[in-house]
């Protein structure tokens, strides 16, 4: 195998793995946004807070956690936030104000931010590497075809994986949800009572909808790649 053929094989493997990874990270970033959260809070059927936070309350308070995950601030960004007296529960229900987030919730958000930073740092590095690779490979028809083949293979693998995960999640959502959190967070650090502000602002339904949106955002480009590949192959016959 000559040098060019070895590079082409590496490009196929690289594109196969990098394409779904970048799609997933891009979808995650779109979901981790004010726009998605605003849509969720205002759409019909989104579960109300049984402890009294209104839609307007959620719209006023819900964006802070997203901002914290994406900015360079420490946990004091969330730790300094308070709720009004009519929004306080448990031991704070007779106080004029209370902390918005419990100590346990703040600790969990620190963990989430650490993982978020690592994930998006990896995504940025991968995007830079992919751009550099495409620029270097553009002069070789063999290398360009290798990248296109990798996109095709990556799309097929991604759609297969998405369908499998969707079936598993639909059949055993609670188990899958727990397994996901156990994979990234220490046991006992991510479970909270329903009265905790973290759960009141971000109920489980939000994560179900986020998973559905991510699947759609990842699957759509993959289907487009397969469609264009099929159309091109048909024209070449």
Give the SSE string: HHHHHEEHHHHH
The radius of gyration is 22 Å
Helix content: over 70%
Tell me about the biggest sheet?
2 strands, antiparallel
What is the 3D form? elongated
Class based on secondary structure composition and strand pairing = mainly alpha
Oligomeric state, counting identical vs distinct chains: single chain
Termini gap: 28 Å
Overall pLDDT: 91
Please tell me the total number of domains.
1
Beta-strand fraction estimate: under 5%
Give, in spatial order, the strands making up the sheet with the most strands: 1-2
Enumerate the spans where pLDDT stays under 50 for 5 or more consecutive residues.
none
Total helices: the number is: 10
